[in-house]
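Schema walk-through. Below, the input block comes first and the output block second. Nothing else is stored per chain. Lengths vary across the set, and this one has 89 residues.
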Amino acid sequence: MEIEFNPGRYGEPGVSQSVTRRTAAHPAAPPAPSFERSQSVERALAETPAVRPEKVERARIYAADVKYPPDEVLERLSHLLALKMKGSE
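--- output ---
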């Protein structure tokens, strides 16, 4: 399509194309929600204990151990943090 711009020319507008507008189709109503799965999830969640005893016991063991975490892990972590701090300056 070529458009000519000439403000001094007021001739006939020329051929135009008609535009047909589509009417918006009404979407179908969504199916009724099924809450069976959510109810089973809620039941499973209610049956799950709030505290896992084996994890609590493991945490107690780690907290009582003066050698946890090992010195090597702490050293590596401190070096990593120092590198990150140098990079942010």
